[in-house]
Structure formats: C-alpha cells, structure tokens
Amino acid sequence: MSLIHDDLPSMDDDDLRRGMPTCHKVYGEDVAILAGDSLLSTAFEYVVKYTDAEKIPGNDPQRRLLDVVGRLGASVGNVGLAGGQARDLECEGKPASAVTLDDLRWIHKHKTAALLKVSVAAGAILGGADEAQVESLEAFADNIGLAFQVADDILDVTADSATLGKTAGKDLAADKATYVRLMGLEGAREEARRLKDEAVRELDGWGEEADGLRAVA
Which pLDDT does position 70 carry in this prediction? Predict the structure, then answer.
C-alpha cells in the first residue's frame, strides 16, 4: 500500500519500483489509489482473520490482539505514515537552511520507522512479550528504520537505476530533504553506521531469539 501510494504523481511521482513500471503507470492513477486502499484494509482483515487467539500466550489473548490492531492503525494514520508523508511533502522544495535534521528524523520516524516498529512490536506482543521487551524492540526498529532511510538517501546519489530498481537521483531532482543534502555524503554514511550500532545495542537484553533482527541490522 505505502509503496503504491508513494509512487503516485501527487506524491513522489516515480515510474519505477523494483525495476518494473509502478502501479499507476501500468493500471492508471485511479486503480493505483484503489489498490493501495484495498491493501490497507486487507492488512487489518488479515491480522484478525489469521491470528489464532488460542496460540497467544497469557490470560487475555484478545487484549493482545486488539493492542496489535490499534498499533497497526496508528502506524499508518496521522501520527504515523500519513503524518510523516504530509511533513515530507511540506519540506519538499524548501532550501536546505529551512529543513533541519530534526525535521528529517521526524518524517522518517513516522514513515519507515513507524512501519518497522509496528512489525516487530506485533510479533512480540502476540508472542507474549512484556512491556519492557516490546519497548526495546521498538527502539531497535526506530533506529534501524532511520538507518534504512539514510542508506536509501546515500544510494539515491551513488547507485544507478538498474541497481536500485527505481529512478536514481530522484530525490535530488525533486529537491527533497535528504540526509545527504543536510549532512553531506560522508556525514550520512557515518550517521547510518551510528544508527545501526544503536539499533543492535537495543537488543543486548535478548539472546539468540533476536539473532534474526541482528542480521537485519
């Protein structure tokens, strides 16, 4: 959903995604909007329909399931993906001096990081994790989400379209606020490393059950 909508002409206006024409280029903008809306609705349906409450640990599995559904809604709403995208559009075209790193971090904490956050939190909650464990995983996701976005900004100026699977140099052409634009290429690389290290440190209280997340980082 988020990628289909992100590629729309009124958003990032991109013609390529994973090396193929974007949804609106193939099916038209109207169908792309509806496809994104449909996928968003299906996400909630899928969680409720295919989560076996009998396998959720604890005395109140329904509460855990409702918690996940609520978090999923928040992650794509005005305090999540939609809010982050609105701020992103607001900052587009502004001079570098008018956009701060705090602005950029806010945008991506509410976009990329918000989606990763709800992903790891949902699994932990349904798996029986306590509040402190969920918070540590959310902190991991916050940092790795920002690191992902910094890396994406770096690749936008260092890789070609064939490698990226999307239009290279698009952010620069659209005069978007990016980490490379605000920190320089080397500064952005250092920031990506710092965020990755912070993310891994958040998993110090976990054993081998978090090795998959460490591998992601």
Answer: 95
